[in-house]
Design goal:
Layout: E1 4-13, E2 16-21, E3 24-29, H1 32-35, E4 44-53, E5 58-63, H2 66-75, H3 83-92, H4 95-104, H5 107-111, H6 118-132, H7 149-159, H8 164-172, H9 181-194
Parallel strand pairs: 3-5
Antiparallel strand pairs: 1-2, 1-4, 2-3, 4-5
Helix pairs in contact: 2-3, 4-6, 7-8, 7-9, 8-9
């Protein structure tokens, strides 16, 4: 997996850009929120990335912030939402405004974004509502997007196959106090076994 790129911007043509790293040009697709913060072509840049592997292509997506990449990764887990719709969402609404729409169950604001219909907006609200309970999706996300131990444990439980709401409930039952990520995961899994 390619986690980030640091290099020179060779070309920019929204939503695509090419970043040259050590003589290799990486083609990326990025949301407009990232394009607004890019320096001019020829300048140095560092972008966080996410690689999507399909049968016919490997597509690399670039993001200016960890919050954008985290939301992109959450969006593409929603049924019926692929990378193109996730990019459209990130291009049409800020991360914090998106969370606000989900919390307020404001589907009409989401339908104003090109490519987002009523059914998709409603599905996003329903499926993302559980994920908003996740610590790592709290607006702001901590210093420089760093994840807390609880947020990392939550991500690990979801990666293990637990539904977002179930992962949040298991972590809540793991007990209070400052604990390491590993300790939180261990206690959450022990709680799941006892049930």
């Amino acid at each position: 997996m390619i986690g980030s790129l640091r290099g020179r911007i060779a070309s920019k043509s929204p939503p695509q850009l090419t970043v040259e790293v050590g003589g290799v040009g990486y083609e990326l697709e990025a949301p407009m929120s990232t394009f607004f913060h890019l320096p001019p072509a020829g300048s140095e840049v560092r972008l966080l990335t996410h690689l999507v592997v399909r049968e016919d292509a490997h597509v690399l997506y670039g993001f200016a912030t960890e919050e954008e990449r985290r939301l992109f990764r959450s969006l593409i887990k929603v049924s019926g939402v692929g990378p193109k719709i996730a990019l459209a969402l990130l291009s049409g609404i800020s991360v914090s405004d998106f969370y606000g729409c989900v919390q307020a169950q404001d589907a009409s604001s989401l339908t104003r974004i090109p490519g987002i219909g009523r059914k998709t907006a409603e599905r996003l609200i329903v499926e993302m509502r559980d994920r908003l309970a996740a610590p790592e999706l709290a607006v702001g996300g901590g210093a420089a997007g760093a994840l807390s131990a609880e947020a990392e444990a939550y991500e690990a439980l979801v990666a293990l196959g637990y539904r977002p709401a179930e992962a949040a409930r298991l972590l809540k039952g793991a007990g209070p106090g400052t604990q390491s990520t590993e300790e939180l995961i261990r206690r959450a899994l022990q709680g799941a076994v006892r049930e």
